[in-house]
Amino acid sequence: MADNEKQIPESESQPAVEIQPTAESQPATEPASAEAAPADEVARLKAELEDVKDRALRGWAELENFRKRTARQMEEERRYAALPLFRDLLPVLDNMKRAVDASAENHDLAGLLEGVKMVVQQFETVLARHHCTPIPALHQPFDPNVHDAILRQPSPDFPPNTVIQEVEQGFRLHDRVVRPSRVIVSAPAENPAAAPSENKPS
Hints:
Layout: H1 10-13, H2 30-79, H3 83-106, H4 109-129, E1 132-134, E2 147-154, E3 163-168, E4 171-173, E5 176-179, E6 181-187
Parallel strand pairs: 2-6
Antiparallel strand pairs: 1-4, 3-6, 4-5
Helix pairs in contact: 3-4
């Protein structure tokens, strides 16, 4: 009977075992991806560096253009700074010429004098319009910052160091002296010489 029993093949009696692929059998893809990542990062950094350099060059060029434009404008302002003053002075010159021509035709000295006075007033108005004003001097205490003393003269009528005569008028522009006033300043009055005492015989 044992001989008649069918023997089960060994392959059918054991369950099938699934073979999993090992790490060695898989294709080596991870090292390639690891090498690609640094290359992409380097390319990105290079692109950012080029962008920064380009923006820096553009900023430097704009700054240089601004500097040149500002220097040119300042040079033009310095060159033509007196243009408004000259525009106001030209009418004064015109009136002076008219007064001279009129006096030459009419031989009117009184009219010429009156015309010159008007021109002087107009000239002073122009100076005041441009903030150039006279420096007070006459009967003022002497101030070496704005007065130039050309002579000291004894005077019993004024305290010492008082301007008693203005020889040439001074002017200031805003708070800066254009030219000081040339003046004569009072000095202490001289004491009268004491009469010599006579030696009387004893």
